Fold:
Amino acid sequence: MGLHSPYATVIWDYINRGMPFAKEGTLTPNEVYALTAFLLYKNGVIPEDQVVDAQSLPQVKMPNRDGHVVPEWKHGMPRPFPNKP
Structure:
């Protein structure tokens, strides 16, 4: 997700809504920003010392920001990204 999301705010939202497992939504905003910053750093998107907060997160330029393409798909067609075991 770190490199495929067109916007860093998508990662923040995913973490905020879905983590931790079975206790979704219990992280504080600062914990969500910290985890988002860690993931962005580990994926080489931001430097280790960059501060990530409500003002700076939308400014993060994601690697796939300009190339994000939603695959063409219509009901009844095979999934464009099939699940693989």
User: Anything to note?
Assistant: The chain has two helices and no strands.
